[in-house]
Design brief:
Elements: E1 6-15, E2 24-34, H1 38-50, E3 59-66, E4 72-74, E5 79-82, H2 87-100, H3 105-113, H4 115-118, E6 125-128, E7 148-149, H5 152-162, H6 168-182, E8 186-192, E9 201-205, E10 209-213, E11 225-230, H7 236-245, E12 248-250
Parallel strand pairs: 4-12, 5-10, 6-11, 7-12
Antiparallel strand pairs: 1-2, 1-3, 8-9, 8-11, 9-10
């Protein structure tokens, strides 16, 4: 792996035209691959977009770029599962966990008040824990965490050791959360999928790990949520650049 050139492979797909023209988001994905693996990465992302439960895309963009920056290795967050019986119970638990991570209660309340407004944002919303306001300035685009991957062999080993199902959805979600929470400006993350068939979500934080919550919305609901609670007193431009541009491999060994 050391000394080998890697490429960032990214996919986005939508229905009724591109995202910028009001198209409905269907799917997105990220991979880091050596040149010899780019073809397989493109194939995997293509399959993901064409088989998504949100619909059939009529616009798709797949691109890859050479990664010039050194790749950072990040350990996966420790994982726990919280069983909840309803979306109300799941979201109440999420509020409690976010507060335990260090976000003031009034900021948590304001963030949840804006969830319906944020559901159409294509990326994540950056929410300041001090002012209780969205501060990324990206409107509908949001912040898209990019340039990350979790090598399959390491993920399979991690899943076996932790007794977790080795499915791609968990791999992708935990990889994103681990990169996000590694950033010093991020206090906590709240997320659930816009997939109408998937109702599990999570709260993630350095001090809490990755807290899966088994019911965060109702079946058939296509609204999603991704909020990064950040310390707005830090350099937000630098934070966004790190989340979008710093290449990261998740590795359970945790060392380069």
């Amino acid at each position: 792996m050391k000394g080998e050139a890697y490429y960032s492979v990214r996919m986005r797909a939508s229905e009724n035209g591109p995202h910028e023209e009001g198209g409905k988001h269907i799917s997105g994905g990220e991979r880091l691959a050596p040149f010899i693996g780019v073809k397989d990465a493109v194939s995997d992302l293509l399959e993901k977009a064409l088989s998504h439960s949100r619909g059939k895309p009529d616009f798709m963009q797949i691109r890859f770029d050479l990664v010039n920056e050194p790749i950072k290795f990040v350990q996966p967050l420790r994982i726990e599962t919280n069983e909840t019986k309803s979306a109300e119970e799941g979201q109440a638990l999420a509020r409690e966990l976010i507060s335990r991570a260090g976000v003031p209660k009034n900021a948590v309340d304001k963030a949840f008040q804006g969830i319906a407004e944020y559901s159409d944002v294509r990326g994540a919303v950056l929410f300041d824990i001090h002012s209780g306001r969205r501060i990324d300035g990206r409107k509908q685009k949001g912040v898209r965490v990019s340039r990350l991957d979790w090598p399959e062999a390491d993920f399979q080993m991690w899943a076996a050791l932790c007794g977790m199902p080795p499915n791609p959805r968990l791999k992708e979600a935990l990889a994103i959360a681990s990169k996000v929470c590694e950033h010093p400006a991020v206090v906590a993350e709240l997320c659930w999928s816009d997939d109408p068939d998937y109702i599990t979500g999570y709260v993630a934080a350095k001090k809490l790990g990755y807290q899966r919550i088994t019911r965060m919305k109702e079946h058939g609901d296509e609204s999603g949520c991704r909020i990064f609670f950040v310390d707005g007193l830090t350099d937000i431009k630098s934070c966004i650049d790190g989340l979008e541009k710093q290449p990261v491999f998740i590795r359970s060994g945790g060392k380069t």
